[in-house]
Amino acid sequence: MFKYNAGFDSEFQTEALPGALPPFGNNPQKCPHNLYAEQLSGTAFTVPRKENRRTWFYRIQPSVLHSPFRRVEGGMDVGSLEGEGFRVDPNQMRWNPMPLVEVGENVTFVQGLKTMAGHGSPNAKTGLAIHMYTCNTSMIKQACYNSDGDYLIVPQKGTLVVQTEMGWLEVPPKHIMVIPRGVVFRVEVSESSRGYVLEIFKGHFDLPDLGPIGSNGLANARDFEYPVAAYDEVVKGREGMTKEQRYDWKLINKFGGHQFETEREGTPFNVVAWHGNYSPYRYDLTKFCCINSVTFDHPDPSIYTVLTCKGDDVGTATADFVIFPERWMVMENTFRPPWYHRNCMSEFMGMVWGKYDAKEGFQAGGASLHSCMTPHGPDYPTFKGASEAELKPQKFDKGLAFMFETNVILNISEKAISAEHRDVKYFKCWEGIPNTFVGMEKEGEGKKKKRKKGV
User: Fold this and answer.
1) Whole-angstrom distance between the N-terminal and C-terminal Cα of the chain?
2) Where on this chain does homogentisate bind (predicted)?
3) Are 92 and 129 in contact, with CB atoms under 8 Å apart?
4) Is 33 an annotated catalytic residue?
5) Of 166, 302, 324, 336, which sees the most CB atoms within 10 A?
6) Shortest CA distance to 112 belongs to which of 122, 121, 120, 102?
7) β-strands 54-59, 317-324: how paired?
8) Which helix (H) or strand (E) holds 437?
9) Tens digit of pLDDT for each residue in 333-372?
10) 347 marked as part of a ligand binding site
11) How many CA atoms lie within 13 A of 305 on its CB side?
């Protein structure tokens, strides 16, 4: 079931049935095996060729076989990330792990999505949203797609088995998955699962430019894995069936920040062959090649960027996905944990496993938000320990944290602010940082008196 092509943003061709791909051209007068040709475009037709993303499907039946969409009241609604239900708040925030689904409840991936924060508008194709999910039930005869943007999904607990139009992806913790705008998928789980989702409304994720690093390092293109064609058998002879029997699949569409549903005739996973460069993919985070200092100083966290969605200004991202993986730290005369800082970016952090090296109390499955220009950094025990530590080569292998970083001020969901698992005492981790300044005590009394006189 799980076979993959490798290479980031590559032009793939794959077929589950020999001869299903046309021998030349994209849309022949008659497709092999009497299939239907259908194109999925993730960019405008006229963008530069190097930026154009599209895939041709050769499927048993086209996607148009569905009943009219209807809006689902009470479904996932984040139509306005700046309206009712969202507000700005500059305070440092932290959440303990989101509670898993209670025994006896049946919650699918789509039902378990909870919006934490966001900015912009999916209608205007600007900005992003950050979600978390908990689920324990597989989607059976149910599929979904996102008209608003791309999903970057970070499992924290439980493996996601994802069927897409292009084929299957298995995504355990320590992996990520990207589902581009418009791609139909469904999620299977075998246990209570939890994770994080970054949704971008404009553009797509790219590998960051390496600049002076050169041609290698960080996430290598060859390590990204794409599905190969696989299709469900399609029931024939539907002409004699009732409407309920024919339209036996539910399709959920996130559109303009609201949830719509329709019934469709048969499985949407009927793609026998496809070719193109617009497809979901997965990446194993343990393959990330860290770049770090071997002399002194703690480099900026941008050196840990896995994927980026570039903003309108050069060097500024709409969203970056950054990880803090296992790594050696060898720099001398340096404060090795993250320093105290204020940032023009907003930082939403999550924890996949283990513990964070800059602060106590940040748990796997939890989250934190440090907004634009709000100060943050290590708690005092971490600061004191790192300031007095013997600076010998040391391997950090105690956890995997990550960050969704963006250049906008995020609007925070009222439900996230009032959630029972929010750690409302988070600010106390910085209480009691002592004043250890010793400059005045070391000066003589004469110098002190002159300073008082303004000399």
Assistant:
1) 80
2) 356, 376
3) no
4) no
5) 166
6) 102
7) unpaired
8) none
9) 999 999 999 999 999 999 999 988 888 889 999 999 999 9
10) yes
11) 23
Report CA dihedral (383, 349, 43, 176) to the nearest 10 degrees.
100
- Residue among 417, 288, 401, 285 at smallest CA distance from 349: 401
CB-CB contact of 351 with 157 (8 Å) = no
pTM for the whole thing? 0.94
What is the token pair recorded at 165? 């139009």
The β-bridge relationship of strands 167-171 and 86-87 is: unpaired
Of the candidates 204, 258, 275, 298, the residue annotated as catalytic is 298
DSSP labels for 399-410?
A: EEEEEEEESSPP
Tell me how far CA of residue 250 lies from CA of 65, 69, 212, 244, in angstroms: 12, 11, 50, 11
Collapse the DSSP code of 323 into the 3-class scheme (helix H, G, I; strand E, B; otherwise coil) and give the result: strand
In contact, 408 and 82? CB cutoff 8 Å: no
Chain segment 6-56, per-residue pLDDT in tens: 999 899 999 999 999 999 999 999 999 999 999 999 999 999 999 999 999
Residues 6+ apart with CB under 8 A from 288: 218, 219, 304, 306, 323, 325
CA neighbor of 58 nearest in space, from 86, 103, 23: 23
Element (H, E) at 196: strand 193-200
- CA 226-98-198 angle, to 5 degrees, is 35
Question: Is 330 part of any domain?
Answer: yes
CB 350 within 8 A of CB 402: yes
Range of the domain at 325: 285-430
Q: Is residue 348 part of a domain?
A: yes
User: Considering its fold, how many domains does the chain have in total?
Assistant: 1
- The answer on whether 225 is annotated among ligand-binding residues is no
Q: Does some domain include residue 331?
A: yes
